[in-house]
């Protein structure tokens, strides 16, 4: 791959950090843009099988000629999905808070690395650069990111695919709880219908293609 860029969000687009930008026509495949998958996953040390899963996802994104959007870290699953995508020839865009850059965990090999001041800015730019969202096994941060794009799809703020790749039941408890919310009236079946849950990599990317 060629060189990489380290820049502030202003260098991307003036509206990029807004939630509305994430659902704009310019970010949709129908408008002629390449598929760009925003992958949410762990950045903490985890079992090697999850790191391998992230690598599979990155390689498969590259095989399809797509772009990867990530949280801009170079460690654990987050780092592996980006490295594998680049190894296969994919373009990678990372969005990372300045504090994490200062801790030297930034994916400085990203084709475009956007540095922001807050987590809200980070999520806004990741949304704006993506045409689909894919959650791999992760922790609280991954769940928070997932719930935001899931909720915004459910209420009609965007129509981009929101997909969970869960090969071993990592999210089973969470999804069972949401089904309980539906049963008790705190959530609707339509909210569950806004989410796609699959168990293998290719099915996940097929769902991301819309």
Overall description:
- The chain has 210 residues and is an alpha/beta fold.
- Helix content is 42%, strand content 17%.
- Strand 3 (67-70), helix 3 and strand 4 form a beta-alpha-beta unit.
- The longest helix is centred in the first third of the chain and has 16 residues, at 48-63.
- The protein is globular and about 45 Å long.
- The chain starts with a strand and ends with a helix.
Helix content: 40-55%
Highest CATH level, the class: Alpha Beta
Based on CA inertia axes, which overall geometry fits?
A: globular
Tell me, rounded to a whole number, the average pLDDT: 88
Q: Tally the structural domains.
A: 1
CATH architecture: 3-Layer(aba) Sandwich
């Amino acid at each position: 791959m060629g060189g990489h860029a380290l820049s502030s969000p202003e260098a991307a687009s003036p509206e990029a950090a807004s939630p509305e930008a994430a659902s704009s026509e310019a970010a949709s495949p129908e408008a002629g843009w390449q598929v760009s998958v925003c992958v949410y996953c762990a950045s903490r040390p985890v079992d090697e099988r999850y790191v391998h899963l992230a690598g599979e996802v990155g390689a498969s994104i590259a095989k399809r000629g797509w772009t990867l959007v990530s949280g801009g870290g170079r460690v654990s699953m987050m780092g592996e999905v980006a490295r594998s995508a680049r190894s296969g020839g994919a373009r990678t865009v990372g969005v990372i808070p300045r504090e994490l850059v200062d801790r030297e965990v930034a994916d400085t090999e990203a084709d475009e690395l956007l540095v922001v001041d807050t987590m809200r800015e980070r999520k806004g730019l990741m949304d704006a650069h993506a045409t689909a969202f894919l959650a791999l096994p992760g922790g609280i941060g991954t769940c928070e990111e997932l719930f935001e794009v899931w909720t915004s799809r459910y209420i009609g703020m965007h129509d981009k695919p929101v997909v969970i790749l869960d090969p071993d039941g990592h999210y089973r408890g969470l999804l069972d709880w949401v089904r309980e919310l539906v049963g008790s009236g705190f959530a609707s079946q339509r909210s569950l219908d806004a989410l796609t849950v699959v168990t293998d990599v290719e099915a996940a990317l097929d769902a991301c293609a819309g």
